Amino acid sequence: MLGNPKAGIETTELSVTHLLANPWDLLLPMTVGGLISFGVVWTAFFFPLRRAIAAYQSRREARRRRRFAEDEGPLVPQHGHFESVRPSGGRVGPLRREGETE
Q: Quick check: pTM over 0.90?
Protein backbone atom coordinates (compact mmCIF):
# COMPACT_ATOMS: atom_id res chain seq x y z
CA MET A 1 0.00 0.00 0.00
CA LEU A 2 2.58 2.57 1.05
CA GLY A 3 4.95 3.27 -1.79
CA ASN A 4 2.99 1.04 -4.17
CA PRO A 5 0.89 3.20 -6.52
CA LYS A 6 -1.04 0.13 -7.72
CA ALA A 7 -2.45 -0.47 -4.22
CA GLY A 8 -5.13 2.18 -4.75
CA ILE A 9 -3.81 4.99 -2.56
CA GLU A 10 -0.87 7.23 -3.28
CA THR A 11 1.53 8.10 -0.51
CA THR A 12 1.07 11.73 -1.44
CA GLU A 13 -2.60 11.32 -0.41
CA LEU A 14 -1.66 10.38 3.16
CA SER A 15 -2.52 13.48 5.09
CA VAL A 16 -4.58 13.95 8.20
CA THR A 17 -7.48 15.43 6.25
CA HIS A 18 -7.44 12.55 3.73
CA LEU A 19 -7.35 9.95 6.53
CA LEU A 20 -10.21 11.66 8.36
CA ALA A 21 -12.25 11.81 5.17
CA ASN A 22 -11.42 8.21 4.12
CA PRO A 23 -10.48 6.25 7.25
CA TRP A 24 -10.97 2.81 5.70
CA ASP A 25 -8.25 3.45 3.11
CA LEU A 26 -5.72 2.90 5.89
CA LEU A 27 -7.72 1.12 8.59
CA LEU A 28 -8.94 -1.80 6.46
CA PRO A 29 -5.46 -3.15 5.59
CA MET A 30 -4.29 -2.55 9.15
CA THR A 31 -7.33 -4.37 10.57
CA VAL A 32 -6.89 -7.38 8.28
CA GLY A 33 -3.18 -7.62 9.09
CA GLY A 34 -3.88 -7.21 12.79
CA LEU A 35 -6.49 -9.98 12.79
CA ILE A 36 -4.10 -12.36 11.08
CA SER A 37 -1.32 -11.50 13.55
CA PHE A 38 -3.76 -11.82 16.45
CA GLY A 39 -4.75 -15.34 15.39
CA VAL A 40 -1.16 -16.50 15.17
CA VAL A 41 -0.07 -14.95 18.47
CA TRP A 42 -3.22 -16.09 20.31
CA THR A 43 -2.70 -19.66 19.18
CA ALA A 44 0.99 -19.57 20.07
CA PHE A 45 0.23 -18.44 23.64
CA PHE A 46 -3.21 -19.86 24.47
CA PHE A 47 -2.63 -23.58 24.06
CA PRO A 48 0.73 -23.78 25.91
CA LEU A 49 -0.60 -21.56 28.71
CA ARG A 50 -3.80 -23.59 29.01
CA ARG A 51 -1.74 -26.75 29.36
CA ALA A 52 0.62 -25.17 31.91
CA ILE A 53 -2.27 -23.82 33.98
CA ALA A 54 -4.06 -27.17 33.93
CA ALA A 55 -0.87 -28.92 35.09
CA TYR A 56 -0.40 -26.38 37.91
CA GLN A 57 -4.01 -26.73 39.04
CA SER A 58 -3.72 -30.51 38.98
CA ARG A 59 -0.55 -30.45 41.11
CA ARG A 60 -2.14 -27.95 43.50
CA GLU A 61 -5.28 -30.06 43.90
CA ALA A 62 -3.18 -33.18 44.51
CA ARG A 63 -1.14 -31.34 47.14
CA ARG A 64 -4.31 -30.10 48.86
CA ARG A 65 -5.84 -33.58 48.84
CA ARG A 66 -2.62 -35.06 50.23
CA ARG A 67 -2.53 -32.51 53.06
CA PHE A 68 -6.15 -33.12 53.91
CA ALA A 69 -5.59 -36.90 53.83
CA GLU A 70 -2.74 -36.53 56.33
CA ASP A 71 -5.38 -35.42 58.85
CA GLU A 72 -4.24 -31.82 58.97
CA GLY A 73 -7.64 -30.65 57.81
CA PRO A 74 -8.41 -27.54 55.78
CA LEU A 75 -6.47 -24.33 56.29
CA VAL A 76 -8.41 -21.53 57.96
CA PRO A 77 -7.26 -18.00 58.87
CA GLN A 78 -6.64 -17.57 62.58
CA HIS A 79 -5.26 -14.34 64.08
CA GLY A 80 -3.38 -13.16 61.00
CA HIS A 81 -1.95 -16.50 59.93
CA PHE A 82 -3.27 -19.79 58.66
CA GLU A 83 -3.81 -22.64 61.06
CA SER A 84 -4.79 -26.15 60.26
CA VAL A 85 -8.05 -27.37 61.75
CA ARG A 86 -8.37 -31.11 62.21
CA PRO A 87 -11.67 -32.64 61.13
CA SER A 88 -12.27 -33.58 64.78
CA GLY A 89 -12.27 -29.88 65.66
CA GLY A 90 -8.90 -29.86 67.46
CA ARG A 91 -6.56 -27.08 66.44
CA VAL A 92 -2.89 -27.41 65.75
CA GLY A 93 -0.36 -24.58 65.67
CA PRO A 94 0.53 -22.36 62.72
CA LEU A 95 1.63 -24.31 59.68
CA ARG A 96 5.36 -24.77 59.48
CA ARG A 97 7.56 -27.04 57.52
CA GLU A 98 9.65 -29.61 59.31
CA GLY A 99 12.64 -28.02 60.98
CA GLU A 100 11.20 -24.50 60.62
CA THR A 101 11.15 -22.26 63.69
CA GLU A 102 9.62 -18.86 64.33
A: no
Strand bridging mode 81-85 / 75-78: antiparallel
Residues β-bridged to residue 1: none
Tens-digit pLDDT profile for residues 9-46: 566 667 888 888 888 888 899 999 999 999 999 999 99
Q: Contact at 8 Å (CB) between 95 and 75? A: yes
Q: How many residues does the chain have?
A: 102
Cα separation, 82 vs 84, in Å, equals 7
Per-residue CA distances from 53 to 41, 44, 46, 48 (Å): 18, 15, 10, 9
Judge whether 10 and 18 are in contact, CB under 8 Å: no
- Element spanning 102, H or E: none
pLDDT tens digits, 77-94: 666 665 555 555 444 555
